[in-house]
Amino acid sequence: MQLDLFQDVGQLTASLVDIESVSGAEKPLADAIEAALRGLPHLTVHRDGDALVARTGLGRPQRVILAGHIDTVPVAANLPSQVERGLLYGCGSADMKSGVAVQLCLAASVPQPSRDVTYVFYDCEEVEAERNGMLRLSRQRPELLAGDFAVLLEPTGCVVEGGCQGTLRAEIAVAGKRAHSARSWQGSNAIHAAGDVIGVLRGYRARQPEVDGLTYHEGLNAVGVRGGVAHNVIPDKCVITVNYRFAPDRSPAQAEAHVREVFDGWDVTIADVAGGARPGLADPAAVAFTTAVGGTPRAKLGWTDVARFAVLGVPAVNYGPGDPEVAHTAGEHVALSEISECEDRMRAWLTA
Amino acid sequence: MQLDLFQDVGQLTASLVDIESVSGAEKPLADAIEAALRGLPHLTVHRDGDALVARTGLGRPQRVILAGHIDTVPVAANLPSQVERGLLYGCGSADMKSGVAVQLCLAASVPQPSRDVTYVFYDCEEVEAERNGMLRLSRQRPELLAGDFAVLLEPTGCVVEGGCQGTLRAEIAVAGKRAHSARSWQGSNAIHAAGDVIGVLRGYRARQPEVDGLTYHEGLNAVGVRGGVAHNVIPDKCVITVNYRFAPDRSPAQAEAHVREVFDGWDVTIADVAGGARPGLADPAAVAFTTAVGGTPRAKLGWTDVARFAVLGVPAVNYGPGDPEVAHTAGEHVALSEISECEDRMRAWLTA
């Protein structure tokens, strides 16, 4: 599959969407992006697994980073892409192949940016933190991620979004006692008992705290459940997987303590946690960017790798085409006009 | 693996337990039983898949059937078998390899029974009805199951148990709407909604009707649950598998109507149903047997293939070693003395 980086950014987005790249299966898309980038003589390209880093080397006093993940959540019967009334539909169209398309267009068509630019394309953002390609890069090739300011092109509807919420995954195991289902009163049904865990989730009241002037919105939800031994056995175990999205005024340790308190008395295993990032919009580099692209910043609710950049000491914001509220839905889509708008504004910033 | 059918019936039971035979994987045990039976010149042996039928052909005026299934529920860290204080522990020890051991001992050591005898060993009793080896035999080789009276050696604690309850499996599908879990209020969580189905199950009051003088005890239970799309997606579907055990005063159609009424408003799919059997203890052949082995008959709660024999027009009862209340539990066991008692009484009946 060949990618033409000089075509219209909307058409390029459609080409990217049509190369399926569910987390863990990004190779075909990474291969296509690598081949296209290697055709650009002004960039030095590095590959690490299914992540790619392409850099200009113009000796500018500042270096900025444009980053995006190339993986998507599982397909929900929403491939191949379709265009209808100016909207491009398809898995990953908003989150975040339109942002990746903007990166690729700029990489190809701005050979002499006013700041040196590092373009980062990485894998496995939509799964547990340990598999994240940006984490791998930050451990194995931190020098490739060095810079003065980073923009993550996650979907924000072309509004600067500050910080991000943290995310924690836990497994709540409910125990029971096996018995033949013809004599169920001899056992104790773990699935029936799990109704109490679901009751806690249904009754949970999520916080909406203000952090550095932006309002966040937490959530605690079941994202998986499994239980059952055989069709004639009262099950002795049921596991509910919950996802806690927490505002950046809570650390990962505080988030874990909160989940353990909510599920006090149950067997709780923390499977995965990634801290959030405070907005950080007072940083000069962030101010310069937000001034250039305009608009009123707001809070980022989904976890993004701005948190990763925060750990590396690089100021970072989220800014990209697409409505974050349609991400991960079967009807995911992005307005073609928004992709172009994002490309135009970022091109103006990089060439100013 | 070679089986010695002339060893003590308790030792033979241990040998059978130690040949793992979870439903669908009975072949090694069926092979061992077949090899042992083919060494007995007074029996004609037929094999059908992993089921075996061995028959005497003495021209007696009556033919009786001794039947047992050779599969077990999944192993629960309870293999190999262990003997402690006269109890044999292990997966399938009660349900029903001790009964199968009695069949095999009698097959080997009673070459001249007072009635012609058909020994039936079959597969896949512990799973959905369509896979049942006795059902397959009844369709493909009904002549092999002909007889005047049948004893199913399911665990009854050496008490004659009449009839059996029916069993129905249904899937209750709960729908939701996908969304990114960082913005859960944009979706509808199917796992949270499934809490209502669990609530119905927890509040269900099971009937305990009397049928032909015996008291049955129904039950409606979740035996499986699954839901979840990805760790950052609000799930749009959760399926709860329920098992309804119904007394033999209800037909399969009545049982289905009942389940649909209980889960009115949900998406209910009937996956599997097997009717029960009324006690039938007034039948002369049943009376002759119960008189010979003694004791006071009671209701059989678990589904057994007496229902299959009822459909074929063969009067049948349950009678075998082992406590049905420990069947399908991790601590499943059988008293060695009970296995011997069962063997002795049935030997007396067959040689009278």
Which percent range describes the beta-strand content of chain A?
25-35%
C-alpha-based Rg of chain A, rounded = 22 Å
Listing every helix as H and every strand as E from the N terminus to the C terminus, the arrangement of chain A reads HHEEEEEHEHEEEEHHEEEEEHEHEHEEH
Outline of chain A: globular
Annotation field: number of helices of chain A? 10
Distance between the termini of chain A: 34 Å
Largest interface (C-beta under 8 Å): A-B, 63 and 62 residues
Describe the 3D structure.
The structure is a homodimer of 352-residue chains. With 352 residues, chain A is α+β, with helices and mostly antiparallel strands. Chain A contains 10 helices and 19 strands. Chain A has helices spanning 9-17, 27-38, 93-109, 133-140, 190-193, 195-203, 252-262, 284-293, 306-312, 336-351; strands at 44-48, 51-55, 63-69, 82-84, 87-89, 116-122, 149-152, 161-162, 166-175, 179-180, 210-211, 214-215, 219-227, 233-234, 237-246, 267-274, 298-299, 316-318, 333-335. The first copy, chain A, has a 6-stranded mixed sheet with strand order 1-2-6-3-7-18, with helices on both faces. Chain A has a 4-stranded antiparallel sheet with strand order 13-15-9-16. In chain A, helix 1 (9-17) crosses helix 3 (93-109) and helix 3 runs parallel beside helix 10 (336-351). The two termini of chain A are 34 Å apart. The model of chain A has no long low-confidence stretch (mean pLDDT 95). The interface between A and B is large, with 63 and 62 residues. Strand 13 of chain A pairs antiparallel with strand 13 (219-227) of chain B, so a sheet runs across the interface.
